[in-house]
Automatic annotation (TrEMBL):
This is Phospholipid-transporting ATPase. GO terms for molecular function: ATP binding; ATP hydrolysis activity; ATPase-coupled intramembrane lipid transporter activity; magnesium ion binding. Its cofactor is Mg(2+). It catalyses: ATP + H2O + phospholipidSide 1 = ADP + phosphate + phospholipidSide 2. Belongs to the cation transport ATPase (P-type) (TC 3.A.3) family. Type IV subfamily. It is found in: Golgi apparatus, trans-Golgi network membrane; Membrane. Residues 81-141 form the P-type ATPase N-terminal domain. GO terms for cellular component: endosome; plasma membrane; trans-Golgi network. It is a multi-pass membrane protein. The lineage of its organism: Eukaryota, Metazoa, Chordata, Craniata, Vertebrata.
């Protein structure tokens, strides 16, 4: 549900809350968490107590808000020495509620009445307590207002209760506690699994044999792949967990910040000889909201509450108000202006006689129906129905509506901004190409690679050396190059093989014998898994890995052992990763590195083919990595290690110092090969993009991938059609370069634009208006190398410069900012987790569902909302026109025409159901809407709800109100009560007939609503003898008078509708047959 788990430490029982554990200081408390089990990775026959998380936690300050913790500071946390506490820390509890028990009602009422129109209706209702302003019974004003408020309060209460229950579930999680004597005070074996890490910790110890553990971070960074975490070496070597409190040690941690990918700290043990000082980095952390996937881990808590990384990275998304709501608000302002004008005219026609200012207020009350109080309720209920229809659509299963207030926005999207990886593509990597410079191997020639690897380890060609020395020499050269490339790819990664039981072999046996059928690869990137799987397919298999070693199996079954000396993980800034290993058989030390061509081109030795071949492979839609190596002597490595360890111990500018030391190795490396991995397209991406293009929606692709790959994917997905030119915006760094390139682009017509993030930043800095003007004219735009903040910036600029609605689609954590910034955010539940899906307004399981979501549900929601709003306004204007005519005829008296239950029943039980049934109306079938997406294009101009349609409905209301009122005045005979009976009955029948006139496709519920409303009115006449003469309505005179008035008010409109359909039919009517 997106509640990023800041878990309150629950003590469990009152007995445990006594004694020395209950202390306001930094008490060393151990907690135990059942680890997450995944059936695809671990056997189900393990007991829960074999897989648990134990953490050392310090006591939180219960009065954190009063302790002055506004400033974040570094901290030193001592193990087992609470008396050395330096500061208090926030409580580890989450609260996602907007209100509490005492502020709920005042808060909801304030949020309702801070808007002018709700306050206006409240003032109208309150004015009825003043005798000079009272027009009728109090309930005629208070009941409608109360109905609106009750619906709002109930809706808010349901949301608050759901939020409270989610928070309570997380905050009440109980963790087994370990005392300072090392005794487990109570067990958690029977408690629920799938518990997350409750606080930010430093990883001290694990029970896993390989000395590491796996972490799932899907709810923190959006990535579903497991992350490898390493304990502090000093504490990992301790005999038992209880020894953690016997040593004299402390952790120094940097001040809390939002960076989840980096951490700076140190671990110091003072009682050692000599004292031990170890550097801490991101690999030693366990952030809150992550899940321990295997093993038992022990950690010390360093951040809690609002200082958690997950909490600090949670931004409050902006409250999205739909364009339709703004348009309706504009219309209601016009109606309010009309209300004031009519009231002033009535008083002016009285020549401002007497207490005219009181008369103005009475007329404002009398004509208050001009601004319909039921409009907001009807629209909100309609949106709930539209959201329910989206969820229940069997053709887009799994779709979730998280923002039920903006479904009609989906019907007016002009710009669709989409991520590439995982959204348009499957994020399933397939190895396609190995390039060695002089020779390249594709999918059809992988058997040659396999034979080269086999020959490199078995040397089967020795007996051929005497017959064909030249050929053998060439073959050996190629074989050795292929072998070196494959070995490098098999070593330079962060992949770990995990063994599972398969029903025949248990886990321990599978791990011991490296069973192929039980092995699963885990890594933080699907690219790395695809590369390791490829090396396995050609004969060199990764069979084992732990914190300090790696094992490869050759085609002959021999096990090659490598010692891992150093690992330099991939970061978005460095765009490369490296590893230093020692071959146990030869003692050789080798530094392997792989990365993007933009950074590796300056690291490897000079060559004349790298840039060209990288471009060629990228144009084929492949993700390219450059692999290189460098041999090190023992002296070189020892010198590097000393400088590297010293840099890692730095507290200030650690990242810069470490990078400088690593860069001293990254020089003149030997280029081994290029690898090309393909990210396959999602199902039905091409037809979906074609539907969107035909609907008049311009699609922009915003990706962090390189320019060539993004361009190829755009072509492959038909984002750029075959007959369209592509203008690749050249890299620019200065204002003059941007000016020249924009002039060159201006001369192009009807061509797609491809631009990198760096060039985009320069253009937006100096020529924002000119660039956006040119880009908006393009049929498609591809922005590559885009940072998450740039994606959100582009969305914001599109909204500001065009005034059109935008929709952002993404699947990863890096798309959240773009999704939250767009008018409609759509999250795709993909391989990168659910972070984008949870942050989005709408969640889909596949990109292809977007077509139906927009073309069918978006279109219907907008057209239905437009019809519903205009009909509610018509209903109110009609009765207000009758009141105006009545007052005019009777010397501008401020006397209500209808009183009591008549005025309430008119907008509720008599007309509510037929009017609301318009939410079921549709002009064409869903299949037709998908087949002819051009129908969607008509909605982009906002014609269903415009000033033109609004004026038409106003004229219809004035016409019908005049006909009904003047007809009743002309045809009544003797008593005033007959005017009420004739006019009110004609009014009800007119509204029912107008609903029938508006409906385009009948639904059985519409017929039920019409008949039910008519039956309710007829049945209620028996109880309305106070307002209507029951004996008169049973006469033939009443029936023919009502019939004539109703026909005169409705028949001309039916005739006009027929003539319009006959001679100027709308576009959709041509397809209905």
């Amino acid at each position: 549900e997106g509640t990023k788990g800041c878990v309150r430490f629950h003590k469990g029982t009152a007995a445990l809350a006594r004694g020395r554990e209950e202390t306001p200081y930094l008490a060393a408390i151990f907690y135990q968490i059942t680890a997450l089990y995944t059936t695809t990775r671990f056997p189900l026959n393990r007991t829960f107590n074999e897989n648990k998380l134990i953490l050392v936690a310090f006591r939180c300050c219960p009065w954190s808000r009063c302790c002055g913790m506004g400033d974040f500071r570094p901290r030193t946390v001592w193990l087992g020495h609470p008396e050395k506490r330096e500061q208090r820390y926030p409580r580890n509890v989450i609260n996602n509620q907007k209100y509490n028990f005492f502020t709920f009602l005042p808060g909801v009422l304030f949020n309702q009445f801070k808007y002018f129109f709700n306050l206006y209706f409240l003032l109208l209702a309150c004015s009825q307590f003043v005798n000079e302003l009272r027009l009728g019974a109090l309930y005629t004003y208070w009941v409608p207002l109360g109905f609106v408020l009750i619906i709002t309060i109930v809706r808010e209460a349901v949301e608050e209760i759901r939020c409270f229950l989610r928070d309570k579930e997380v905050n009440s999680q109980i963790y087994s506690k370990l005392s300072t004597r090392g005794e487990l005070l109570f067990s958690l074996e029977d408690y629920a699994a799938n518990q997350r890490v409750p606080a930010d910790m430093i990883f001290l110890r694990t029970s896993e044999r390989n000395g590491s553990c796996f972490l799932r971070t899907d709810q923190l960074d959006g990535e579903t792949d497991w992350k490898l975490r390493l304990p502090v070496a000093c504490t990992q070597r301790l005999p038992t967990a209880a020894d953690l409190l016997q040593i004299r040690s402390y952790v120094y941690a940097e001040e809390p910040n939002i960076d989840i990918h980096n951490f700076i700290g140190t671990f110091t043990r003072e009682d050692g000889d000599p004292p031990v000082n170890e550097s801490l980095s991101i690999e030693n952390t366990l952030w809150a909201s992550t899940v321990i996937a295997s093993g038992t881990v022990i950690g010390v808590v360093i951040y809690t509450g609002k200082e958690l990384r997950s909490v600090m990275n949670t931004s409050n998304p902006r409250h999205k108000i739909g364009l339709f709501d703004l348009e309706v608000n504009c219309l209601t302002k016009i109606l309010f202006g009309a209300l004031v004008v009519v009231s002033l005219v009535m008083v002016a026609l009285q020549h401002f006689a007497g207490r005219w200012y009181l008369q103005i207020f009475r007329f404002l009350l009398l004509f208050s129906n001009i601004v319909p109080i039921s409009l907001r309720v009807n629209l909100d209920m309609g949106k709930m129905v539209f959201s329910w229809m989206i969820k229940k659509d069997s053709k887009i299963p799994g779709t979730v509506v998280r923002a039920s207030t903006i479904p009609e926005q989906l019907g007016r999207i002009s710009y669709l901004l989409t991520d590439k990886t995982g959204t348009l593509t499957q994020n399933e990597m397939v190895f396609r190409r190995l390039h060695l410079g002089t020779v390249a191997y594709g999918m059809d020639s992988m058997d040659e690679v396999q034979s080269h690897v086999f020959s490199a380890y078995t040397q089967v060609n020795k007996h051929n050396s005497s017959r064909a020395p030249a050929t053998t020499k060439v073959r050996k050269t190629i074989s050795s190059r292929v072998h070196e490339a494959v070995k490098a790819i098999a070593l330079v990664h962060n992949v770990t093989p995990v063994y599972e039981a398969n029903g025949v072999t248990d886990q321990a046996e599978a791990e011991q014998h490296y069973e192929d059928t039980c092995r699963v690869y885990q890594a933080s990137s699907p690219d790395e898994v695809s590369l390791v799987q490829w090396t396995e397919s050609v004969g060199l298999t990764l069979v084992g890995r732990d914190q300090s070693s790696m094992q490869l199996r050759t085609p002959s079954g021999q096990i090659l052992n490598f010692t891992i000396l150093q690992i330099f993980p991939f970061t978005y800034e460095s765009k490369r990763m490296g590893i230093i290993v020692r071959d146990e058989s030869t003692g050789e030390i080798t530094f392997y590195m792989k990365g993007a061509d933009v950074v590796m081109s300056g690291i490897v030795q000079y060559n004349d083919w790298l840039e060209e071949e990288c471009g060629n492979m990228a144009r084929e839609g492949l993700r390219v990595l450059v692999v290189a190596k460098k041999s090190l002597t023992e002296e070189q490595y020892q010198d590097f290690e000393a400088r590297y360890v010293q840099a890692k111990l730095s507290v200030h500018d650690r990242s810069l110092k470490v990078a400088t030391v690593i860069e001293s190795l990254e020089m003149e490396m030997e280029l081994l090969c290029l690898t090309g991995v393909e990210d396959q397209l999602q199902a039905d991406v091409r037809p979906t993009l074609e539907i969107l293009r035909n609907a008049g929606i311009k699609v922009w692709m915003l990706t962090g991938d390189k320019l060539e790959t993004a361009t190829c994917t755009a072509k492959n997905a038909h984002l750029v059609t075959r007959n369209q030119d592509i203008h690749v915006f050249r890299p620019v760094t200065t204002r003059s370069e941007a000016h020249l390139e924009l002039n060159a682009f201006r001369r192009k017509h009807d061509c797609a634009l491809v631009i990198s993030g760096d060039s985009l930043e320069v253009c937006l800095k100096f020529y924002e208006y000119e660039f956006m003007e040119l880009a908006c004219q393009c049929p498609a735009v591809v922005c590559c190398r885009c940072a998450p903040t740039q994606k959100a910036q582009i969305v914001r600029l599109l909204q500001e410069r065009t005034g059109k609605l935008t929709c952002a689609v993404g699947d990863g954590g890096n798309d959240v900012s773009m999704i939250q910034e767009a008018d409609c955010g759509v999250g795709v539940e993909g391989k990168e987790g659910k972070q984008a899906s949870l942050a989005a307004d709408f969640s889909v399981t596949q990109f292809k569902h977007l077509g139906r979501l927009l073309m069918v549900h978006g279109r219907n929601s907008y057209k239905r909302s437009a019809a519903l709003s205009q009909f509610v306004i018509h209903r109110s204007l009609c009765i207000s026109t009758m009141q105006a005519v009545f007052s005019s005829v009777f010397y501008f008296a401020s006397v209500p025409l209808y009183q009591g239950f008549l005025i309430i029943g008119y907008s509720t039980i008599y007309t509510m159901f037929p009017v609301f049934s318009l939410v079921l109306d549709k002009d064409v079938k869903s299949e037709v809407a998908m087949l002819y997406p051009e129908l969607y294009k008509d909605l982009l101009k906002g014609r269903p709800l415009s000033f033109k349609t609004f004026l038409i409905w106003v004229l219809i209301s004035i016409y019908q109100g005049n006909i009904i009122m003047y007809g009743a005045l002309l045809l009544f005979e003797s008593e005033f009560v007959h005017i009420v009976a004739i006019s009110f009955t004609s009014l009800i029948l007119t509204e029912l007939l107008m609903v029938a006139l508006t409906i385009q496709t009948w639904h059985w519920l519409m017929i039920v609503a019409e008949l039910l409303s008519l039956a309710c009115y007829i049945a209620s006449l028996v109880f309305l003898h106070e307002f209507i003469d029951v004996y008169f309505i049973a006469t033939l005179s009443f029936i023919w008078k009502v019939t004539v008035i109703t026909l005169v008010s409705c028949l001309p409109l039916y005739i006009l509708k027929y003539l319009r359909r006959r001679f100027s039919p709308p576009s959709y009517s041509k397809l209905t047959s």
